[in-house]
Automatic annotation (TrEMBL):
Domain Thioredoxin: 36-169, 657-820
PANTHER family linked: L 2 01289, LETHAL (2) 01289, ISOFORM F
Region of interest (Disordered), residue spans: 1069-1209
Biased composition regions of type Low complexity, renumbered to the chain: 1102-1120
Gene name for this UniProt entry: LOC108053463
Name of the protein in question: Uncharacterized protein LOC108053463 isoform X13
Keywords: Signal
């Protein structure tokens, strides 16, 4: 036992010795070797190669794809991360990515590396920093070998076969250009035809690389002849398109990149596993429009039921569109829709060669849409565009001919017919021919009479002055325009428009009869193309008056307008190269532009936020300050503040600036003086931003104050006298800042000044003091200045605003306030500077006091575009407003006695007529009045006056029932809400329209209908108080599924209002099914008229009792109380509204769930008994055949419900 223990102990000691001194212990195989030499330890193989800064620089120069691992000696995490990354080194090698590591903090800082460890991926020397988890080596490998990481702008990336295989597996859509090996075609060696072909194809295809990327299509190239042979591609180069790993080969010409892109897009959908319309972004849509000849776009809202229902219908014609070469996409982007003039969603727009055409039919009828689209393919006509679409096309610099026309004008129609004959020729010339029916847009271009044609090239308009009915002459003129390479001559109206719409415009002010101008013009023609290449429009104008308006005294002169801001060129115009250099420099680099006093005035007039530096360019200190302020120019531009400089001492004095430099900020023409240090640009920037973003009382000088008082109707001035921060006047001023917004909303300007000159003139003796100038007439505030609420109440009080014995001049804001708050108002609308209007005003002043005695407010207004704002036929005009309702005076405005008599008659008469309203008032009423009836009529309508006379009889009755009744002859507004036949009656319940489709000559029936609508709305409101989930509502103006516009099977007077009651929906619900009743009476009213179907429909499961054949109904229907039969007679039986219409209930079911619009099996409608007046009504029979496709669909274009299967028996 002792021996065994000793033996065991010896073995343990030997083992410990062997482990402690491994170099001195040899196995039997090494007995012949010396034991004194220890074996060298095995070095682990360095996997990721270590490099220094110089080696890395060389590696980046030689290799396309390099991954760099940055580490630091003291970094504990770095070793762990490195150990993980070394596992993928071989993989990165096989993918052609060199992987190295480096410890160089200084170099790391140059590449934006601040924390260690870090990984940077260099793609052709362009670095991107990996921001994922470095411990996840698989994630790192995916990143290094992904197509996104390899992507370089405007370049098609080269890959090897292994990377290509991974890209095909990982990417749904990828296009691969196969080229010969580098050995066959070394770089820059073009001695073989296939090498030249490949280089040229690559050059062209790189032009569409970014577009393909935006469309979700990867683009790579590979130089691998063996792989090409394996795929049996034949001669190279060749393009293979992989869609979900399925390849197809492009058979067309590779050097026509636009054809390639269109082919890629068209074949993208055919590779989809799911047959769905592709969703695109705004940027992708723009790319598609530019590159696809035939494109259909559905603008929709994913959260909107109508949109989703329409989308499901359109999915059914997607394949048909593909077959005919029409690409179909959808976009859920309200801003993008707005950019194309789409006001209501969902909407369909068809783009043919970038020209948009809006579909105005029924979006639920996919067959009709397909027919329309195919018609667009075959039809060759001038396309209609919206104003937004036109603006976009002009902004893009496209060559377009635009016909401004009126669709209802015979001459326009005749011209249009002639011009259709040259549409193809214009296409051949590269001219896009469009038409637009929009009077407002026409006026913008100085067009007062249509038809008129304007040619646009690079955004520059040229008006055609010839005969539009002679299409041959017009075509020749258009041909000359496209071939002409001259600086375009424009009018003053066109100049204003170009400056407004184009970012960079160079304008030569010249005199065509002056030799110097002719000589300079000849030189400048040489740089016209270069300006085009730099996106600078170049135009010329021979108009001395326009030149003077911009302060141009010397002709010829060049002015560059940068986003509306003028820069005057002061160099030698004969040196065109220097001028070109200056133009390009001004475009690329931001500088504070020098302006004339006339330019400054125009900018003040047209620029919302403007900062003006008044300085002396001969003063060194001024120039130093100007250089400092150049540093904040970019920040101001980002904030939408324009900054300019002016060297004009006389102009500075007009603003009371005695010391230069000085800064004045203008906001909506109201100036504010900067009192701080102009050398501190940060302080200046902060002050300007505060002025823009917050409501502040502007600081002004006496000179500025005098201008404000003279130019504005209402100006409140806080005279502080000399006032230091922290003093009482400063605290009071800060408190008054809180009411500045309210005064601004009322159109009242609020300013402050320390100057005392004007204060003394208006008898201000103590400071601070508040004075209110009303049309230059001062009124001193005598209350508590520290109580801002009291100050606000005093300023906005009617007694304060009125000036005894004078007709007050008001601005639009104040006029809106007066009309909203006063029952009786007389308004004189006129144009400022109109001598005739001034004579009329002198006469009207004589009756102002009489109006005031009758509590009638009398005001005048001459704001810009006041006639458009208030929809006036012409200026001057006089209108009497009673409770917002307007009556325009049609007599002689110079006869004040007759006017006074007219005003008093209107004031004292009871409103026993239906009030006429203008567009502005009607829109206010629709928004503000809960129960509103509107009678729409047309001046050309023969029956309208007779019907109106009848309806006048119920005006008082509607008032008693709380329903406001008005009339409008605004045809354009009627068209906007879907009314094209007159007369028409629409009832608005809290802004929602319901169309009356009965006999308008029977006023009693009209009154009953209006009262019923109101009461039904009231009952619904009461019910909603108890059950929020069962909200029934009425919709009207429906067109049985057709478009509300003319065309598309338009049926005049085919309007049927319905009540909709939604039910709880399943998630998969898309398509409506319905239980329908004619609106207006219950089941008990049946049997009223013999032979007239007015009964009930029950779709997909009726609740009514029925007689069955073979099967009996499981549950009897509840008997309903019979409605009382009206005994009113109807003088005109041509209409079918003598019986009231029952309600429509809408429920929803999945379209493919098997539900149909048929009655349930075994159920039949049962006729009710006849009533005492010998009138009967049969229940309508429902056909067992499949309902019409349009039955029970929502017309989402008009927003109104239509119900099919409406048979009259």
């Amino acid at each position: 036992m002792t021996f065994t223990r000793l033996k065991t102990l010896s073995l343990l000691v030997c083992a410990l010795l062997a482990l402690s001194f491994p170099g001195y212990v040899n196995g039997g195989a090494n007995n012949n070797k010396k034991g004194s030499q220890p074996a060298a330890p095995v070095e682990p193989e360095a996997v990721i190669e270590e490099v220094n800064a110089k080696q890395l620089e060389k590696l980046l120069a030689d290799k396309d794809y390099v991954a760099v691992f940055w580490y630091a000696r003291s970094c504990v995490t770095c070793d762990k991360v490195l150990a993980e990354l070394e596992k993928i080194d071989d993989d990165t090698d096989s993918f052609g990515v060199d992987f190295v590591k480096i410890n160089d903090k200084r170099l790391a800082k140059q590449y934006g590396i601040k924390n260690f460890p870090a990984l940077t991926y260099f793609r052709e020397k362009e670095p991107i920093i990996y921001d994922g988890d470095l411990m996840d080596e698989e994630g790192v490998l995916d990143f290094l070998t992904s197509l996104e990481a390899m992507d370089l702008p405007d370049r098609i990336e080269e890959v090897n076969s292994k990377i290509l295989q991974k890209i095909i597996e990982d990417t749904d859509f990828v296009a691969v250009l196969f080229c010969p090996d580098h050995e066959t075609c070394p770089p820059r060696v073009m001695d073989k035809q296939q090498c030249r072909k490949c280089a040229k194809a690559l050059q062209e295809l790189e032009n569409i690389d970014d577009e393909a990327d935006q469309l979700g299509i990867g683009f790579v190239k590979i130089h691998d002849e063996a792989l090409a042979d394996e795929y049996n591609l034949g001669s190279l180069p060749a393009l293979v398109y992989y869609r979900h790993q399925t390849p197809i080969i492009y058979e067309g010409e590779l050097q026509r990149e636009e054809d390639v892109l269109e082919w890629l897009v068209q074949n993208k959908s055919t590779g989809d596993e799911d047959d769905v319309i592709e969703d695109v972004t705004s940027k992708t849509l723009s790319t598609l429009i530019s590159n696809i000849d035939n494109l259909v776009v559905l603008f929709y809202d994913h959260g909107n039921d109508d949109s989703m229902t329409v989308l499901e219908e359109l999915e059914q014609i997607d394949d048909d569109c593909d077959k005919h070469g029409i690409q179909f996409v959808k976009i859920d982007d309200a801003k993008a829709a707005g950019d194309y003039g789409i006001d209501s969603i969902p909407a369909i727009v068809y783009f043919e060669k970038e020209i948009p055409n809006v579909y105005d039919g029924d979006l639920m009828d996919e067959e009709q849409i397909l027919k329309w689209l195919l018609g667009q393919l075959e039809r060759d006509e001038i396309e209609d565009v919206t104003d937004e679409m036109l603006d976009t096309m002009i902004k893009e610099g496209r060559v377009i001919a635009v016909l401004f026309y009126d669709n209802n004008d015979k001459k326009s129609q005749k011209v249009l017919e002639e011009l259709e004959n040259i549409d193809d020729e214009c296409d051949a010339l590269g001219i896009t021919f469009v038409k637009i029916d929009n009077p407002e847009e026409a006026v913008e271009y100085g067009i007062n009479k249509v038809p008129k044609l304007i040619y646009f090239e690079k955004g520059i308009p040229t008006i055609y002055e010839g005969n539009l009915e002679d299409e041959e002459k017009l075509l020749k003129w258009l041909t000359d325009q496209t071939s002409s390479d001259q600086i375009e001559d424009i009018t003053d109206e066109m100049l204003d428009l170009i400056i407004e719409k184009m970012p960079h415009v160079a304008v030569l002010f010249y005199d065509k009869d002056q030799k110097k101008s002719q000589k300079i013009l000849a030189e400048l023609e040489n740089i016209d193309d270069e300006c085009d290449q730099n996106d600078i429009a170049f135009v010329k104008i021979d108009d001395d008056k326009e030149a003077k308006e911009w302060g141009i005294d010397e002709i010829p002169s060049i002015v560059l307008f940068e986003r509306g801001i003028p820069h005057i060129y002061e160099g030698d115009l004969m040196k065109e190269d220097e001028l070109l250099g200056w133009l390009v420099h001004q475009k690329r680099y931001s500088e504070i532009p020098e302006v004339t006093d006339e330019m400054k005035d125009k900018l003040v007039e047209n620029t919302e936020h403007l900062a003006v530096i008044f300085y002396d360019k001969d003063d060194k200190q001024d120039m130093r300050i100007l250089n400092e302020l150049e540093n904040i120019d970019d920040e101001l531009e980002k904030e939408g503040i324009v900054i300019v400089r002016i060297d004009n001492a006389a102009e500075a004095k007009e603003y009371g600036l005695d010391h230069l430099p000085a800064l004045i900020y203008f906001e909506n023409k109201i100036p504010a003086l900067y009192e701080g240090d102009l050398m501190n640009e940060d302080e200046v920037l902060e002050w300007l931003l505060v002025q823009k973003k917050t409501a502040t009382i502007e600081e002004v000088t006496d000179e500025i104050l005098v201008n404000l008082i003279n130019e504005h109707e209402y100006v409140v001035v806080f005279f502080t006298g000399p006032c230091e921060p922290g003093e009482t006047c400063d605290h009071t001023l800060n408190a008054l800042e809180s009411i500045d917004d309210e005064l601004d909303e009322a159109g009242i300007i609020f300013v402050t000044t320390e100057d005392t000159g004007v204060a003394k003139k208006y008898n201000v003796k103590t400071y601070p003091r508040l004075v209110f100038f009303r049309n230059r007439d001062p009124l001193h505030f005598t209350g508590d200045l520290d109580d801002e609420d009291e100050v606000l109440a005093w300023i906005t009080d009617d007694e304060t605003l009125e000036i005894p014995g004078k007709i007050e001049e008001v601005n639009v804001k104040m006029l809106d306030k007066i009309l909203a708050e006063n029952d009786h108002v007389v308004v004189f609308f006129y144009a400022e500077g109109d001598k005739k209007a001034q004579k009329i005003l002198n006469e009207l002043e004589n009756i102002d006091d009489e109006c005031e005695e009758k509590d009638i407010d009398f005001v005048k207004t001459s704001d810009d575009d006041i006639d458009k704002e208030y929809d006036l036929p012409s200026l001057p005009a006089l209108a009497f407003y009673r409770h917002k309702f307007r009556t325009i005076y049609t007599g002689d405005l110079m006869k004040e006695e007759e006017i006074l008599e007219w005003v008093i008659d209107l004031h004292e008469s009871t409103a026993d007529v239906i009030e006429s309203v203008d567009r502005k008032t009607l829109q206010v009423l629709i928004n503000d009045v809960e129960h509103l009836a509107v009678f729409f009529y047309d001046d050309e309508c023969e029956s309208c006056s007779e019907i109106l006379e009848e309806l006048e009889n119920i005006d008082d009755d509607t008032d008693k029932h709380g329903i406001q009744f008005v009339k409008s002859n605004d045809v354009k507004l009627a068209h906007e809400i879907g009314i094209f036949a007159f007369p028409a009656l629409v009832y608005y319940e809290t802004g929602v329209p319901i169309m009356y489709d009965g006999n308008l000559k029977n006023e009693n029936r009209v009154l009953q209908w209006l009262v019923n609508q109101k009461n039904l709305g009231k009952r619904n409101s009461n019910r909603n108080a108890f059950n929020k989930d069962d909200e029934c509502f009425y919709v009207g103006l429906g067109h049985d599924g057709h478009s509300a516009k003319r065309g598309n099977n338009f049926v005049p007077n085919d309007y049927k209002p319905f009540q909709c009651c939604p039910t709880k929906l399943e998630k998969s619900t898309k398509v409506p099914k319905m239980t329908a009743q004619r609106i207006g009476h219950s089941e008990g009213d049946q049997g009223k008229r013999p032979g007239v179907g007015g009964g009930n429909f029950q779709f997909a499961g009726s609740a009514s009792t029925s007689t069955t054949t073979g099967k009996s109904a499981s549950k009897p229907a509840a008997t309903k109380k019979q409605a009382k039969v009206s005994k009113d007679t109807d003088d005109d039986d041509e209409d079918d509204d003598d019986e009231e219409k029952p309600l429509v209930k809408v429920s929803y079911a999945n379209k493919r769930s098997g539900g149909s619009n048929k009655p349930q099996a075994g159920k039949k409608p049962v006729a009710k008994g006849k009533d005492n007046d010998d009138e009967s009504q049969e229940v309508e029979k429902v056909s067992k055949q499949k309902a019409s496709k349009k039955s029970g669909k929502l017309n989402v274009k008009t927003g109104y419900l239509s119900v099919g299967v409406r048979q009259q028996l």
